[in-house]
Amino acid sequence: MIDPKNAVSENFKNFTVLYDSDRFSIAYGLFQNDRNTVAMRWNGEAGESIGYPVGKCKTPLWFSLPNKLIKPILIMLLSQEEANYSEVIRVLNKL
């Protein structure tokens, strides 16, 4: 299992983890070098798994959420104990 902070890839950079439940994470950052967005990934199982999605050469990747789903998902995160509340609110205020 990979720590989401270490799931750095070409498609998603300079991100802040908003939610981390060990196996699943949601983050806010720069997607494909042109826009800030919310993305998510499955972090994998215990052991040496790097989760999903995975790119070439087993590089961990993130997938971007559609714009119309970002706000509802961030609002939902405010009810989750694994969420980084202050960062979720900071991102919501940017939208």
**Poorly predicted ranges:** none
Number of helices: 2
Strand content: 25-35%
Oligomerization state: single chain
| Sheet of most strands | 4 strands, antiparallel
The domain tally reads 1
Distance between the termini: 31 Å
**Secondary-structure element order, as H and E?**
EEEEHH
Provide a quick synopsis of the model.
The protein has two helices and four strands; from the N terminus they run E-E-E-E-H-H. The protein has 95 residues and is of the alpha+beta class.
Task: Give short descriptive properties of this protein.
four-stranded antiparallel beta sheet
Structure description:
- By secondary structure, this protein is of the alpha+beta class.
- It has one domain (4-94).
- The protein contains 2 helices and 4 strands.
- The protein has helices spanning 67-77, 85-94, and strands spanning 12-20, 24-31, 35-42, 63-64.
- It has a 4-stranded antiparallel β-sheet with strand order 1-2-3-4, covered by helices on one side.
- Helix 1 (67-77) runs antiparallel to helix 2.
- The mean pLDDT is 91.
Which helices and strands, and how do they pair?
Layout: E1 12-20, E2 24-31, E3 35-42, E4 63-64, H1 67-77, H2 85-94
Antiparallel strand pairs: 1-2, 2-3, 3-4
Helix pairs in contact: 1-2
